[in-house]
Amino acid sequence: MKTKILSLGHWSVFLFLCIVGVSCRQVYKDKGKLLDMTYPYDENTIYWPTATPFELKKGFWGIHEKGYWYASNDYSAAEHGGTHADAPIHFAQNGRTMDQIPLEEWIGPAVKMDVVEKCEKDRDYLLQVADIQNWEKTYGTIPNHAWVIMYTGIDTKYYPDKEKVLGTTKTGEAAIPELRFPGFSPEAVEFLIKERNIAGIAIDTPSMDCGKSEYFKVHQIVCGANKLGLENIAHLDQLPPAGATLYVLPMLIKDGTGAPARVFAVLP
Q1: Is the pLDDT at 27 greater than 80, yes or no?
Q2: Three-class DSSP category at 247
Q3: pTM of the model
Q4: Helix H segments across the chain?
Q5: Does residue 135 lie within any of the structural domains?
Q6: CA separation for the pair 145, 36 (Å, rounded)
Q7: Which CATH number covers residue 199?
Q8: Radius of gyration (Cα) for the chain, nearest Å?
Q9: Residue 210 contacts residue 183 (beta carbons within 8 Å)
Q10: Count: domains in the chain
Q11: Residue 127 above 60 pLDDT?
Q12: Is residue 3 domain-resident?
């Protein structure tokens, strides 16, 4: 009988799947450690003012002519809205699309930078390198392949109130000058990418860049480095500053620039 020898690459995938499988079985035994960090998609889901919002159309709901129950819907929406992921192609011409990002890159240690008080005082606050350094003084160097999450408190307190989250209820181009919410500073993101080995960054607002941004420098830097982004993530008030693991399950869209994502954390 012939024995097939697995390549190193195949062994890596096999071991990864085994680890995920063991982890999921352990989590199932302790459901209290699971934190859902996703907002549902409906008519209230927050999108960029110029994007196509989520729309659900009911199809057939009822008893089929053959006697069984059947229900089906149609939906449409832009890629970027609600709790969603950004692929590098979003702001980098040669960046990867959603279908080119391997599963293991969507999983990593969750690092929460709590700047809620600063954002309450300054609606346009930008996460600074000093905020990162202060976190590291307490919790140690940011782990490899971590998701660095900016906790502003905006979504936690106000989602899906568009005026309080976005700063305006207008839609289309007329809304853009009125957008007001915090974001990462380009300097902080440069530090994370050059000095730390992160998977990506995440935030509880509609954008990694602040609302007043005109050139989306943070998006350019993150996507240009082939890193990942998450926006409008939920329940950050329940996530500890360190010790949790973040799991991101985005829709696998061929050539996608982003996608709706189910985001959850396994708490320590």
Answers
A1: no
A2: strand
A3: 0.88
A4: 8-29, 116-121, 129-139, 154-158, 162-166, 186-195, 217-224
A5: yes
A6: 21
A7: 3.50.30.50
A8: 20
A9: yes
A10: 1
A11: yes
A12: no
